[in-house]
Every structure is written in C-alpha cells, then in structure tokens.
Amino acid sequence: MDFDFGAEFQDNFPSMMARLGAEGFILELCSGFRLLMDASKGLITFESLKRNCLILGLHDIGDDEIVCMLMEGDLDGDGALSQMEFCILMFRLSPGLNFDGSKQQYWME
Fold it and tell me: Which of 43, 47, 53, 67 is least surrounded, with the fewest CB atoms within 10 Å of its CB?
C-alpha cells in the first residue's frame, strides 16, 4: 500500500541505526510507539493516531488515511497496532534498512 501525503519522505533510520546500534534503535522505536499509543489499551488505535497526527506533521490527514496506515501494519486484524506490529512496520517501510531474520544481524544497503 502506497501513501501519498504530498511530502517527500527522508529515511533517517539507517543513520539512526548506525549511530545508536541495533539495541538503541529498537529502544527509540519503542519510545515512538509509546508516544503514539493509547495508554489505557497499550496499542496504537485509530483514536490515538488521529489525536497524535500533529506530532507526525500530518495536519490534514483524513480518517480514511489513518485507517489505511493502521491496516498496513495490523498483522492480527484487531484494527490497532501492538508494539511488535509497529516495529515490524517501521522496518518494512524503511527502504534503506534491512533485517535478515536473525536475532543480531542488521545491515544497511
């Protein structure tokens, strides 16, 4: 699924990975998840993502686009993102970051 929000995306994940290391990078992703999640549910929900769109710089995003964003990463079909689903989605959406499936092997293109 491709999103076109009228803004150019700059992938900073490879440089973050190089600077922070794998563990530090995952900790940063988890911090981002906590920033966007509904604290009472422990998930990123439609409501929490809509509420936090200003943080993401998405001022004019529509409800349908928020639903599409959630659907892109929702692996279990519950309509929300768990921390694991969020982290997997972030890896998938970064064109310059690869993960080979092993526990410790990360590399950049």
Answer: 47
